[in-house]
Write a structure and sequence with these properties.
single chain; 150 residues; alpha+beta; GMP Synthetase, Chain A, domain 3; 3-stranded mixed sheet; 8 helices; 3 strands; DciA-like
Length: 150
Amino acid sequence: MARDLAKELYRAFRNQPRRNKITESSEVRGHVTDPQSIGSVLDELVVSRDWRQGLAEGNIFIDWEKIVGAEIAGHSTPISLLEGVLTIQTSSTAWATQLNLISSDLLKTISSSAPGALVEKLTLIGPHAPTWKKGLRTIRGAKGPRDTYG
């Protein structure tokens, strides 16, 4: 008996005409089935998901050469941007020192080139030095390559 009632309700539900729900955003844009440009759809997506700051911060990495110039970009690379601190790795310690001296001007240039990005501080690091802390012939507490083999 309950099974027959469930089947009957299911058939009634299935045979009902479907109604399309019209949301506010589709009313503003026009008819739901009207074609739209990809750019306008992506702009709407960026605004609705609040991705503007993230995109502006990503553009710093993409447009690094345009922002700082070819000479500086040839000797430096942005590594990370976390909590307003942009970490830049340089090709030498001399470049790290020079960029540290002009860091305030560099920060102003970055802020004007990427207005939506939140960059409050620059951290400049030199090139990575080789490490001798891992491998077959290492000793705990060793002082480097001259102390590796005993």
